[in-house]
Amino acid sequence: MDSLTMLNPSSVAPSGPFSHGLVIPAGYDIIVTAGQIGTSDEQGTIPESYERQVSAAVDNLGRVLAEAGARPSDIIK
User: Fold this and answer.
1) How many CB atoms lie within 10 A of CB 21?
2) Which residue, of 17, 29, 32, 57, has the fewest CB within 10 Å?
C-alpha cells in the first residue's frame, strides 16, 4: 500500500486516537469507516434522545463518506 488517507472531517467531533475513516488505494478506492458515535456537532455534543443519537451517527457516517467523494448508496455489505 503506497499511502493511506485518513478521513477526519472537521464537521465530526474527534474520536480519541482513532480516525473516522480510511481510504485504501489499489486501483480503486476502498473506504473503511470506524464505528460512528451519535455526536451532533464539531464539539462532540451528544443529543439527549436515543433517536437523535442514531440520526447523528448516520449523518456522521454520511459526512465521512462525503469526505472521500462517496455517498451512502455506495455502501456494500
Assistant:
1) 23
2) 17
Number of domains in the chain: 1
Q: What is the CATH number of the domain that holds 51?
A: 3.30.1330.40
| pLDDT at 2 > cutoff 60 | no
For residues 21 and 9, the answer to whether their CB atoms sit within 8 Å is no
Task: Report the predicted TM-score, pTM, of the whole model to 2 decimal places.
Answer: 0.66
- Structural domain containing residue 70: 5-74
Q: Which residues pair with 30 in a beta bridge?
A: 24
Of 25, 16, 17, 14, nearest in space to 68 by CA = 25
pLDDT of 25 > 50? The answer is: yes
